[in-house]
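Review form for a predicted model. The reviewer records the input and the model, then writes brief findings.
Reviewer: anonymous (R2)
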Amino acid sequence: MIIKRFLRIPKTVFSIVLFLIRNLWKAKSMPIIPKGKAEGVEFLPCTKDLAPCIVRLYPGFHKGTKLGIAKRAMLRLAGRKLCLVVEDAINKRVVGYSLYYFNYRDIREKTVHEGDTGILPEFQGRGIGTAQRLHALRHFARCQFIEGVSSRVSLNNLASLKSNLKLGFKEKERYYDPIMGEERVYLVCDLAPYRESLGSEIIDENPQTLERENL
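Model under review:
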């Protein structure tokens, strides 16, 4: 048993390294998430000082499960471009977030994955969740090399499914997740409609077209 665990270590490290390389490579060509507002909250890019707040919030949305090492590292290295933070406008407390990243499938299909999005219960039911995702969609629409945003939702999560469809996500496939024990749906939102209103704000994948910014 100990030997098997030891043999899994190189594979785990390799997966973490590949995840970071893939996401830092794509993030290099992206702009920083712009600031925004909704009812009683502000939308901010996830800076290094805000990353620990996301790490602390994550278990509350995932039955105590901690955010993985790879995603924690990505938050610190590229959070300003791939993670939107929701902050209480009055108390300046982080109350939610939307975390995005690139899986292998996203690289092939020119999408970015909506890996996790959540907001504290006391801020739910006010349209903030939909607004934060809309803000993220407009952000990614600025990148010409990203054609859509992918998402996975459990069919029994009617609120999230309804929000996805309202924002323009289309169902691509349904499948059973044996780990979660649930029927899920894979959706993709085409960014073309969001891109049409941006005009000169659109950015291609050539890093030379961007201002030199640290990730």
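Findings: The chain has seven helices and eight strands.
Further findings: Helices lie at 2-27, 51-61, 69-82, 104-109, 128-141, 158-167, 192-195.
Recommendation: see findings above.
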